Every structure is written in structure tokens, then in C-alpha cells.
Amino acid sequence: MENMYVTLRNKLKINTLINGDKANPPLILLHGWPSSSLLWRHLIPDLSKYFYVLAPDLPGHGKSDKPENALYDLNFLRGFILDFFDVFNLKTAHLCVHDIGGMAGLSFAVRHPERLGKFIIMNTSPYPEWSPALYISILLLRQSFLTRLFLNRFVFKQVLKNGFYNKELITSEVLDIFRSPWIASTDAMRAFSKTIDIPPELMVENRDYLRKINIPTLILWGRKDVFFPFSIARQLHQDIRTSKLVAVDRAGHFLQEEQPRFILQEMVKFISGKDNDSGANIYAAGDSP
Questions:
Q1: Out of 3.40.50.1820, 3.30.70.270, 3.40.50.150, 3.40.1280.10, which CATH number does the structure's domain 2-284 have?
Q2: Half-sphere exposure (CA, 13 Å, Cβ side) for 277?
Q3: How far apart are CA 117 and CA 26, in angstroms?
């Protein structure tokens, strides 16, 4: 797996994990907060057998640039996706998104559908009505004066636990993968709160626009997500008429950590066109990781 920096037209340097043959169909993987491209580490080796896989660190995250004056809203993140496509000269690509990456991906699908092959959405917030748990959590986490407290190793682990169904999977290695980028520099610590300091209404598309998406879409959703409940997945499935919904059992928000083998199977089946259940709700019992 290659790790390289690419420079976008706005001069931002974006750290990117790259794997697979360029001759294969391109597949872009977008993580969310507070993770990085390493969220996909369990999936990339096998996905690269079928696709040319590109997994960037979003601006402000991981090892990518963290512009101090950026407003990390939907316009900024959607523009990032477009620039990322262009820097790799991708006329079209498959796109798989999660969390904040999912909000940006949905906006990109609305505004640039001609650039997408197939579209995969995982636990995100397509609507401005947040659950009380999410609202309170984000309200606290975006307070910059509390950043050092939240990045304390013990406290960060307690915060991260909310995203896992199986808390035992949060090993020291996993904790470091999530936490280390945020404590790597002063800029990174500033970005911890700044990257989520956006009102929900500036992070979602109009629901009427979402209903116009006609790209083949797979919605994969951890059923035990306390922040983005499965009811959101059902609602999104209704709004995107070309979508298929698959529930991932025994998984919370970070389903890539908890059920990677099951997710891999569903992704490959969907993108390859070997899936005959398009449009149907499927409640799947995920495999053990």
C-alpha cells in the first residue's frame, strides 16, 4: 500500500493511501471525523484486488494540510472531492463515504452525478435534525478550550467507545490510530474542534435534492450506531429511489472496524453488479471481524 501526498489546485497537500492496479476501476474511500484514511485499512488490501483504491485524509484530518482559516462546511468538502477527482484525472469513479465524508459525498452526488459510477454510503447524517446524543456530543467536542481534555488518552478512549458496539475492539493500537493524528502538532489540535464547528444546516443538502439522486447506491449501516440511528438509513433509503439498504448487525458507528469482512463482501458484490436485490431492504447479520 503506497502512501503519497497530492497537491490540489488550491495548494492543499492531501495525504493519500493508494493500492491496486491503475487499469482497474477507481474507487475512492472517504472517512469521517475523528478518523483518517486508516479507517479503511482492513478493507483496502482486498478491495485493491478489484479496484484502483484511493483513500485520502480529508483536509484537517490525518496527515493532510489543516488550513487555519478554512470553513469546513459542505461547500469546502464538496470542492475537495471535485479537486481530488481532478488531480488524479478521474473522469468517473466509484465513491464510498462515511460520517462527514458521507455528508460531503451526498452533496457531490447531487451536484456532480456524472462523475460517479456507483455510490456507497455508510453511517452519516443526511438531515439537519440531529439526535440529542449527537447534538450534545458535538456541542461539547467543538469547544476548543476543551480540546486538550478530550485528547487525553483516557478521555479520548471513552469518547471513542460511543462509536463501537464491541468496546473490546478498542485496543491500544486502534486508539492510537484514531488519536495520534490529532496530537501530532499544534495545527492538528486546533483542527480537532474546528473541523466539526459547523452548524448542521451547513452540512446537508436540501432533502428534495437528495430525492433526485439516481445513481446506483448502496446504504451500509451499523445497526447499533447511537449517534446516527438506523431510522436515518431507512429514511435515506426512501429518499434515494435507486438505493439498496443493508443493515450491519453487531456494529456501531465505525462499522469498518467491527465488520470489515461483511462490508467487503457487500461492497464488491454491489460494485461488480453481482447483486440482484437492488432496492430491497436487507437486514444482514454481519460476520465476526
A1: 3.40.50.1820
A2: 13
A3: 9
Virtual CA dihedral for 175, 195, 70, 203, nearest 10 degrees? 140
CA distances 188 to 8, 17, 76, 180, 238, Å, are 20, 19, 18, 10, 38
Do residues 130 and 154 make contact, with C-beta atoms less than 8 angstroms apart? Answer: no
Yes or no: say if 283 and 245 are a contact pair by the CB < 8 Å rule.
no
Q: What is the pLDDT of residues 123-166, one digit of tens each?
A: 999 999 988 888 899 999 999 999 999 999 999 999 999 999 99
pLDDT digits (tens, 9 = 90+) for 77-91: 999 999 999 999 999
Contacts of 70-73 with CB under 8 Å at 24 or more apart are 70/194, 71/198, 72/194, 72/195, 72/196, 72/197, 72/198, 73/198, 73/202, 73/203
Contact indicator for 26, 19 with CB cutoff of 8 Å: no
Quickly count: other Cβ atoms within 10 Å of residue 31's Cβ: 27
**Cα separation values, 168 from 102, 171, 225, 281, Å:** 26, 7, 16, 30
Domain ranges of the chain: 2-284
